[in-house]
User: Fold this.
Amino acid sequence: MNSVRKNMIPKVYGLVLAGGKSSRMGRDKGAIDYHGKSQREYCYELLSMVCDAVFISCRKEQSENIEPQLNKLFDRVENLGPTGGILTAFEYEPAAAWLVVACDLPYLNEQALRVLLDARDAEKVATAYKNPDDNAFPEPLIAIWEPKSRVLLETAVAQGKNCPRKVLINADCKLIAPPTPDVIANINTPDEYQRVVSTWSKS
Assistant:
């Protein structure tokens, strides 16, 4: 019986969110090199270690600047931000759970992904890390979104609400502490980027 139930659990696909306009950074955050390659490729390769399939979520006009070997999913609806990317992923494969990561997480590593997957509760809407510095709110852009979350995202969009975090706050989710706080730290500005580079150059 347990093996039957295990086989019924949705497979996990990976999604790197790289379609943002990076207005605060002033350049494409997915193209920044922290690890000897673009950050989107780094995240893609991490997800490839733990997921059945992996895709880059992006805008069609970005495609010529994205590494050709990376599978791409073009946003079907514009101006929805990360929510649009997640919904596009569910439109592509509605039966899969999607392990979603933003491309601006330079400290993300394989361990952080495996901890999240090991803690996964497929009966919940999502399994996500909670942010210890932000009222323990869920981090929606390093989270496993189960198939049942799709209708909640669609409902939110229909109501003019595009924030994936608010969807998770109001949903039945499993939240866990990150293995280290830095794995959920996103880097959005040139000053934050310089701090990361400076810290690593000293280590």
Observations:
- The chain has a mean pLDDT of 91.
- The chain is about 35% helix and 20% strand.
- Strands lie at 12-17, 53-58, 72-74, 97-102, 126-130, 138-145, 173-176.
- The first strand starts at residue 12 and ends at 17.
